[in-house]
Amino acid sequence: MVIGSIRNRLLLGFGTLIFVLLINIVLTQIASRESTATYEELRTEIVPTITMLDEYREVNKELFLLSLNKVFGRQSDEQYTNRMKAITEVVLPHFKTKVFLLTQSLPPNDKKIKISENIIKLSNRSITIVKEINNLLLTRVDYDNTQRIGQVTQKANLDLSDLTQQIDNNLSLLQKEYNTRYDAHQTALSKELHNLSGIIFLIGIIGILLGLGIASGIINSIVRPINALQTSALQLSNGNFDVMVKTKGKDELSLLGHSFNNMAESLQKNFEEIKRKNKELEQFVYIASHDLQEPLRTLSSFTSLLEKEYPIEKDENSSTYVRFINEATKRMSRLVKGLLDYSRIGSTKELSEVDCNTLIMGVEDDLALTIGDTETILTIGNLPTIKGYTTELRLLFQNLISNAIKFRAKNRSPHISISAEIIPGFWKFSVKDNGIGIENQFHERIFAIFQRLHNQSEYKGTGIGLAHCRKVVEMHGGKIWVESIPTVGSTFYFTISNKQ
Ligand code: ADP
C-alpha cells in the first residue's frame, strides 16, 4: 500500500458516494422528465380533447332535440330559428375549428383523422340544412305557402336529426379513441412513477450501504488505530513503557504508530538511564551520610569530653568555642542522619493495607508530650484504609503534624484537622493548621531538601522534613502541595494513588 493511502481511501470512498449520488440525480431526472411529459400530454392534450368532445356532443344533442321538437311541432318558429342560428353560426363553427385543429395535430395516417373529417363534413351539412330551414321559415307569407313550407321544413328537420345522430356516433367513436389514449397514458404515468420511486429506493439503498462501508472503513483504518494510539499514550503517561502499538501497512497512521513506538522506546531508555543515575546518587548519599556518621560521632564525643573536662574558669573564651563546636557537631549529626533517613526511604518496599486512622493514633502517641505542652487540638476525619508503605506513611503524617505544631502562631494554640476524600484514581488528604502560614513565593521551594524559611534561633529544624514527605507521596504515585495564607494558616494536600 502506498503512503497516504488513508487519504486515497477516503477520496475513493467519498468519490464513489458522490458518483452514486450523481447517477441518482441523472436517473431521477430522466425518469421524472418522462413522467412529466406523459402528464403534460394528458393535461394539455387528452383531457381537454375529451372535454371538448363532451361539449360537442352536448351541443349536437341540443341540435337533435331542436330538430325533433320541430318535427313534432312543439316549438314556435321564432324560438327555433333563434336557437338554431346561435348554434349554427357560433357554437358549431367553434367546435368544427377545434376538431379541424385536432386533425392537424395528428400524424398523417391516424384513423382519428378520418373520423374527424366525417364530423366536420356532417356538421357542415347540418349547418347548411339549418340555414335552408331558417330561410324558408323567414319567407313564409300566406296559408298555402305555410303549408308547403311546413312540409319541407319537417322533412329537413328529419334529415337534420338523422345527421346529428351520425355526428354523435362519430363523436363517440373519437371520444372512445381518446379515452383509450387517456387510459394508456394513465397506466404509463403510474408505471413511470413506480419506476422513479424504484430508482430512488435502489440508489438510496446503495447510498446507505456505501455510507456504511465508508463509515466502517473510517472506523477500521482511522478511529481504531487512533484509539489504540490514545490508549498507549495514556499508558505511557502513567509510566508504562511497554506499550508498542501494532502497525501494519505504510499509511499515515501506521507511520505515526512507528514514530510513537520509537518515541516510547527512547523514552524508556532515557528513563532507565535516569533511574540508574538516581540509584547511583542515592547510593552515594547513603554511603556518604552513613560513613560521615562515624567521624561525626567521634568528633561529638571528644568535644563533649573536652567541654566536660575543660573548666570554664580557666579560659572562658575557649570553653565558649568548645560549646559552639559541640553544638555545630550535633547539628551536623542531625543533618547527616536526616540525609541517611532520606536515602533509606523506600528501601524496604513492602506494600500493605494501612488503616490511616490507626496510623495517626500511633503518631499522636509519639507526639503526645508536644501535643500536651502546646495544647494542640487534633481533629481527625474519617480516614480510609489504603494500600501503601506503613513506615513511610507514618513518617509523612508525623512530619506534617509536627510541622503544624512547630510553626504555630504565637497568640493561639494549634488546631490541626486531618481529612480525606476520594477523587478519580486517588485519595486526597489534607492537613490543615492555623499556624504562621507561608508566603506564596515559597510554596514550591519548601519541598526541596534543606530548604528552610527561618533560622535556627526562631525554629529548629534541618529542612529535610517536607523533602521526606514529597518522596513518600511520590512513592505512592501521588503529589504534594500547599495552600496557605500568611498569619492565618496552611493546608498541606497530598494524593495517594488508589490503584497500587
Ligand atoms: P524543617 O521543619 O526542618 O524546617 P521542613 O522541610 O519540614 O523543614 O519544612 C521546610 C520549611 O517549610 C520550614 O522551615 C517552614 O519554614 C516551612 N513550613 C513547613 N511546614 C509549615 C507549616 N505547617 N506552617 C508554616 N510553615 C511551614
UniProtKB/TrEMBL annotation:
InterPro entries from the UniProt entry: HAMP_dom (IPR003660), HATPase_C_sf (IPR036890), HATPase_dom (IPR003594), His_kinase_dom (IPR005467), HisK_dim/P_dom (IPR003661), HisK_dim/P_sf (IPR036097), Sensor_kinase/Photoreceptor (IPR052162), Sig_transdc_His_kin-like_C (IPR004358)
Q: Which reaction does it catalyse?
A: ATP + protein L-histidine = ADP + protein N-phospho-L-histidine
Name the Gene3D superfamilies for this protein. 1.10.287.130, 6.10.340.10, Histidine kinase-like ATPase, C-terminal domain (3.30.565.10)
Q: Which UniProt keywords apply?
A: Kinase, Membrane, Phosphoprotein, Transferase, Transmembrane, Transmembrane helix
Matching Pfam families: HAMP, HATPase_c, HisKA
Q: What does the record give under GO molecular function?
A: phosphorelay sensor kinase activity
* UniProt EC number: 2.7.13.3
Q: Where is the Histidine kinase domain?
A: 287-500
Indicate the enzyme's highest-level EC class: transferase
Q: Where are the transmembrane segments?
A: 199-223
Q: Which domain of life is it from?
A: Bacteria
Domain named HAMP is located at: 220-272
Q: Which SUPFAM superfamilies match?
A: ATPase domain of HSP90 chaperone/DNA topoisomerase II/histidine kinase (SSF55874), HAMP domain-like (SSF158472), Homodimeric domain of signal transducing histidine kinase (SSF47384)
Intracellular or extracellular location(s) = Membrane
Q: Name one GO cellular component term.
A: membrane
Q: CDD domains given for it?
A: HAMP (cd06225), HisKA (cd00082)
Q: What is this protein called?
A: histidine kinase
**Source organism of the structure:** Kriegella aquimaris
Its lineage reads: Bacteria, Pseudomonadati, Bacteroidota, Flavobacteriia, Flavobacteriales
